[in-house]
Amino acid sequence: MGALVKTKPETIPGLAAADAAAADAFNKVLALRAEIRDAASAVRASVSKRDQLLARAKKGEIIRADEVAEAENAIRTAEAGLALLQEALPAVERDWSAAERALAVAAWTPQRQLKEAAQARYEAADKALGEAKAERIRAYEHNEKMKLWDFETHAAHFLEEHAPAALTRAKALGKTRGF
Q: How many domains does the chain have?
């Protein structure tokens, strides 16, 4: 297995921006979770206030109806706000996850480029090897064909084809082979 690329972070294009976006998305998640905790605390405080009013009423203390209604309204408002915040949390977390993914992609860029270059080199070498094997086979076949031709048997044929005058001279001297 090859080594990972050692690259300075500042030389990776888009890494700083992706990191800033991921940090921003993370801060939004943290802020929303803090708001959810605060809203849950507000719900608990409103419920506690209403329960205190009801406990005082049970003890015989006179409680105004508008105080109880106000406490009930505060509970509903706090619960509605909490529900809205809880509904927003998955979308904010998805945004953060997407930002972290984009950061990972940016950080992976040098390694991806090295991997792509290695793949291209391998494919070129594989193609060259295939071509070399094909050339070796053609050369072998040609060599095998050439082994069938020997000088003693076939020289006269080539003299007749390429140098007929030599054959004529040889015949004039009484040689049948031409050399």
A: 1
**Residue 68 belongs to some domain of the structure:** yes
In a domain, 135, yes or no: no
SS3 content of the chain, % helix, strand, coil (to 5): 85, 0, 15
What pTM value is reported for the model?
A: 0.58
Residue 1 reports pLDDT greater than 50: no
* Owning domain of residue 71: 12-111
**123 found inside a domain:** no
* Residue range 39-79, pLDDT digits in tens: 999 999 999 999 998 898 888 888 888 888 899 999 999 99
Q: Give the residue among 14, 38, 37 at the shortest CA–CA distance from 103.
A: 14
Please list, residue by residue across 70-109, b when 16 or more beta carbons sit within 10 angstroms of its beta carbon and e when fewer do.
Answer: ebeebbeebbebbeebeeeeeebbebbeebbebbeebbeb
Residue 176, in any domain of the structure? no
